[in-house]
Amino acid sequence: MNLLHIKDIANKYSRAISTILDIDVIIIDSEYNKIAYTSRNVSNQLPVTRTSVIGEVLTTGKVLIIEDNRKYPICKNCVDSSQCKIQGMISVPIMYNERPVGAVALLVPKNMKTSIFEKVGPAIDFLESMADLLSFRLKNMEDYALLEKTKSERETIINTIEEGLLSLDGRNEVSFCNDQFLKYFNIEEDILGRNAEDIFKNSTISNMILSPKDKIVKSLFLEDKGQSFRGIVSKKNVVVNGAKEGILLSFKSLRDSHWSYSSVMDRYKSLSFDKLRSSDQCMVETIEKAKEFAIDGCNVLIGSEDGLEVMEIARSMHNFSDRSKERFVRMDCTGKTYSDLENELFGTDKNPLLGALNLANQGTVLMMNIEECPLYLQKDILDVIKYRKNPRNQVEHEATDIRFIMHTSRDLKELSGKKMFNDELHYRLMENSLEIPPLRARKKDLPFIIEGRIRELAIRHGKSELKFSREALEILAGHTWPGNFSELDKTLETIIFNAEGKAVEENDIMSFGFFREEEKSCNLEIIEEQLLKQMVADKMSKEAIAEKMGISRATLYRKLKKQGLQ
Hints:
Blueprint: H1 7-21, E1 24-29, E2 34-37, H2 53-60, E3 64-66, H3 73-76, E4 86-96, E5 99-109, H4 120-160, E6 164-169, E7 174-177, H5 179-184, H6 196-199, H7 203-210, E8 215-224, E9 227-240, E10 243-253, H8 254-265, H9 281-296, E11 300-303, H10 310-320, E12 328-332, H11 338-346, H12 356-359, E13 364-368, H13 375-387, E14 403-408, H14 412-417, H15 423-430, E15 433-435, H16 446-460, E16 467-468, H17 470-478, H18 484-498, E17 503-504, H19 506-510, H20 524-537, H21 542-549, H22 553-562
Parallel strand pairs: 11-14, 11-15, 12-13, 13-14, 16-17
Antiparallel strand pairs: 1-2, 1-5, 3-4, 4-5, 6-7, 6-10, 8-9, 9-10
Protein name: Transcriptional regulator with PAS, ATPase and Fis domain
Domain Sigma-54 factor interaction: 276-497
Organism: Youngiibacter multivorans
């Protein structure tokens, strides 16, 4: 901190001293700059350097008194001594943090009669008081600068928090809010000092503010000025010395929280159609059709056998559409109770915001194996498509804008004819449908697909140097793979896991018996059983086995129990 920052104050002090003592005053900073100078008797021509008299005070940090400059060594050796109009000087250092940061001096011109040297003690005391005042001012300025820096840093931190924060004082008036809060509620005007009742016309928030409870957490839905908020609001009393001084409200958007989590955990978030290139005409047509549907924004039905790239195509469609910045939610209708499916789709009575329709509003919902969804839920989904409204939401005028991508491995026309699938939903979905061709229909792609899977699985098992011979690859590419990618991955994983050395030959593959002529398809259960037996024999942990197979621990325990491997 330099005295230049308080130059105006230094000038005021120098003029005050000069007026009181009827003598000229000079103040310098640590860089020997003259920041204040009076010219009552002496013009502003006094040179200031490290080797000058006042420069010595700054260097030594000691008081200096010169009554007659002809007797002072520095003045005697000065090249300008013959021209100097100063005869005497009293100078004191300006100390800050125990070091000199400047100096203040009284200048006595030649031939001037003054009694100042007769009462030098009081003069020094007066100058030192002025020096202390300047030091104090400097300290105040540094403290203020530090306070502003700290305030700026804290505001930056608070404004990077994903939660909206609103602070109320003891009269429930706004004392602070961060940028996220203003964004959540589309507020552009200054709300500092306004009462919370003027900002929120909502009974949930009003009751929280009025409640004497120290901490409250509630789900919240608000819609105003074309902006809606779905999430959680929490209230915490601000207590100082045992007394309540205010309230802090924290708003957390459920959609933003889900988006942040998905962005970290979702390995499909960067998928694009570029990664779904194909040389087989049937797959090329499917991809081009998916691109058209993605741009149109229509609801889509994807038909496929099990074990194909439903997720990859659905997510590429979402990422290729104008909904790409919104949420993508996947749910599978297989193996779940009707109650679980209902809760997953609409949320629970306690947490309605956790339903897929709320999480993915303005985004996309992928429903795998839609044929497993009960008829009464199919009717609710149809209502969402027709009326763009969530039938379970109680909030009036709340729009639900969902793009559905539905998958089935069954013939929905046949199911509809048997009254096992909603006729109108089937009709609407069939307007925009596509079929993913099985691996056996993609002979041109199969060699590249197999080599890509081998690379991934070899790295996963710590065998990145493992190579498959040309004959081995030809056998794999010649198989029909009725189980598609599920069968392919499990087969390759078994081979790679059991591979010894750095090469896999034709005999290594045939020794597993996967491709015997009498077997028209690979038995996935046999592959799994062999893989499990090998990993159990190698004394791998349950967690490691589940991770290798891409299944949950609960599923693993069922398979181990079934095969008597526990």
